[in-house]
Amino acid sequence: MAEVVGGELQLPALGGALLANATFGDYLIPVNADVPDLDVVSVGEPDRFSPLGIKGLGEIGIVGVPAAIANAVYHATGRRIRSLPITVEQLL
User: Fold this and answer.
1) Domain that residue 52 falls in
2) At CA 18, angle to CA 15 and CA 21, rounded to 5?
3) Which of 29, 32, 53, 79 could form a disulfide with 46 if both were Cys (CB 3.0 to 4.6 A apart)?
4) Active site residue: 3, 8, 45, 59, which one?
5) Residue 8 annotated to the active site
6) How far, in Å, CA of 92 to CA of 73, rounded?
């Protein structure tokens, strides 16, 4: 909601900009297939700012993993699970 309010507050500052699409039904939302290939590179030296010396990878290399696991569960069980985490109770 904050983004909507912020967007409304910024419209006058942009010279009365107009919305291009009135609904998300008319708006093309980007998906994973729209993202170009990424190279995830692990740097060999430890992070000196982390007590354990580890570096966070973030979402770059794992963005499609939950969907791939859910698809694998579907193909193995025939049950389409659309929420995470996937639990045994959801499969029974």
Assistant:
1) 2-91
2) 155
3) 53
4) 59
5) no
6) 13
Query: Token digits for 76?
Result: 């193995």
User: Closest by alpha carbon to 10, among 31, 19, 53?
Assistant: 19
Closest C-alpha among 80, 56, 60 to residue 70:
80
Domain count, the chain: 1
Per-residue model confidence (pLDDT) at position 89: 93
Give me the tens of pLDDT residue by residue for the chain, a chain 92 residues long: 445 544 555 555 556 566 677 777 777 777 777 777 777 777 778 888 888 887 776 666 677 788 889 999 999 999 999 998 999 999 98
Strand stretches in 16-86, DSSP E: none
